[in-house]
Amino acid sequence: MPLALLALAIGAFGIGTTEFVIMGLLPEVAAEFGVTIPTAGFLVTGYALGVVLGAPLMTVLGTRISRKRMLMLLMGLFVAGNVISALAPTFGLMLTGRVIASLAHGAFFGIGSVVAAGLVAPHKKAGAIAMMFTGLTVANVVGVPLGTFIGQNAGWRVTFLVVAGLGVVGLAGVAALVPEQPRPRGVRLRHELAAFRNVQVLLAMAMTVLGFGGVFAAITYITPMMTRTAGFADSSVTWLLVLFGLGMVGGNLLGGKFADRRLMPLLYVTLGSLAVVLALFTLTAHHKAAAAVTITLIGALGFATVPPLQKRVLDQASAAPTLASAVNIGAFNLGNALAAWLGGLVIAGGSGYTAANWVGAALAGSALVVALVSGALDRGTPRTGRVVAAKGAPAPGGAPEATGGRVTATHP
What we know:
Oligomer: single chain
Domain Major facilitator superfamily (MFS) profile: 4-379
Largest sheet: 3 strands, antiparallel
CATH superfamily of the largest domain: MFS general substrate transporter like domains
Number of strands: 3
GO molecular function: transmembrane transporter activity
Subcellular location: Cell membrane
Protein name: MFS transporter
Region (Disordered): 391-412
């Protein structure tokens, strides 16, 4: 494993920790600033929206510098945002710090995916992407529970200072270990935008929104579902989330391993299984042991889709993958926000907390349908000439392949 992947994973660990740790610290933050918990929830919503908007924005701003330098700038932005949050004297300023930190999120994972894939042989790309995302999944097992513990005992401000310290470590790792990768010659913003004319790129992003949205339709409301339906004590939610995180780690690694072999069949299996498990969660949520197993499976199946979906976007937009890769990271967060909203609607309608699982099952099932459509289009498309980049854009191998004044990218 290239050491550069470790540096990327450390950065991902810090980003994953700051994204999710706030959920365990909302009561403390709300109490200090004198706001309600729903108002404090804007710290979660604001971060998610910042990721969606920041992914394309920061990637576009970084098209004129090398990917390594952009990764370093993004980690610096992440550190600054967390320091602002930690020292903020008002709720508004803390929210500003959260948004600043979130702007680095999508672009870091998007550009990092491209860098990780470029560090290894072509048949190992998904595994390399999964290794970087391991930092995000491990954050849910170690970083979030530990950060919550620190915040509840030493103060939430200390948690954000620790996270900022993780960002400094990640920045140093990127600077020392990630090889210099010059900005690809001939690539301009119009070339990056051209990827979005490829219907397969758009279908992959639709799978991302719907599939990962299915996961968060259930997980967003896991606390009331487990305490009021399954009968767990409030203190048990922490270890239930650890189980979810362990499932994420295992699913992410397995997804990375098998996506390099049979990407689309893997998506059919994981999305279909996720839809079934989420539907069954409406029943298993009433039984403690069954609920614990189901939560682990949701984490595993949900994150088993991450490496193949990210690789799918990279493959289909290979002539200019950076912006498409970053936007796909934003699509994960868009799915989170959409699912949480839809789940909240059915719960508010009086259907009960487990009704959110039906929403998740429907979203995952819809993602499977999109995957089947995408696979059918693959079978009906020649293996060469599927993506035609603008004149002057590099072919996947790095050098343009002239074909009648245009550049034709070939795909595996």
